[in-house]
Amino acid sequence: MRTSLNIPQEVLDSFDEAWKAEGLESRSRAAREAIQEYTERHTQLEEIEGEVTAAVAFDYEHTLVIGDLHTLQHEFEDIIGSTHHQHHGEWCLETVFCNGTALRVRELVYQLRDFDAVGRVNVMFLQQTEHANCSN
């Protein structure tokens, strides 16, 4: 199946450099692998259940989203125990440490990923109870 995507040129340039450096035969092959990896991470995140402890790290363009991020963090104060923030020019790196249900952590991750000014969101589950069945 053929498809079309809108990707910023600098992201596409970096992607092309990466797959070529790995010796893959085409951009299509690299894109298929990237989509598969994304799908696997999503599936793992969806399968985790029960009470969890997690670190959610994300980067963002400070001036475009800081107010909305503060509001979101207050909406999730029931699971966010602490945060760590690092400035780097207009971009920031933040990690929020969470204790609560896997469902609430997922909700936080998905809402963070919905902001255009947030670049990446990664979650690591540090500890799980016997009810949790997968790590990410």
Describe the structure concisely.
By secondary structure, the chain is of the alpha+beta class. The protein has four helices and four strands. It folds into two domains: 36 residues; 79 residues, ACT-like. Chain A, domain 2 (Alpha-Beta Plaits).
SSE blueprint and pairings:
Layout: H1 9-21, H2 27-47, E1 51-61, H3 62-75, E2 80-88, E3 91-101, H4 102-113, E4 118-128
Antiparallel strand pairs: 1-3, 1-4, 2-3
Order of helices and strands: HHEHEEHE
What percent of residues are in strands? Answer: 25-35%
**How many separate helices?**
4
**Helical proportion, percent range:** 40-55%
* Domains, number: 2
Low-confidence residue ranges: 131-136
CATH domain class of the largest domain: Alpha Beta
Please give the alpha-carbon distance between the first and last residues.
Answer: 29 Å
Strand order of the largest sheet: 2-3-1-4
Major sheet attributes: 4 strands, antiparallel
CATH superfamily of the largest domain: ACT-like. Chain A, domain 2
What's the CATH architecture of the largest domain? Answer: 2-Layer Sandwich
Q: What is the 3D form?
A: globular
Pfam families: NikR_C, RHH_1
Family: Belongs to the transcriptional regulatory CopG/NikR family.
Domain Ribbon-helix-helix protein CopG: 1-41
Protein name: Transcriptional regulator
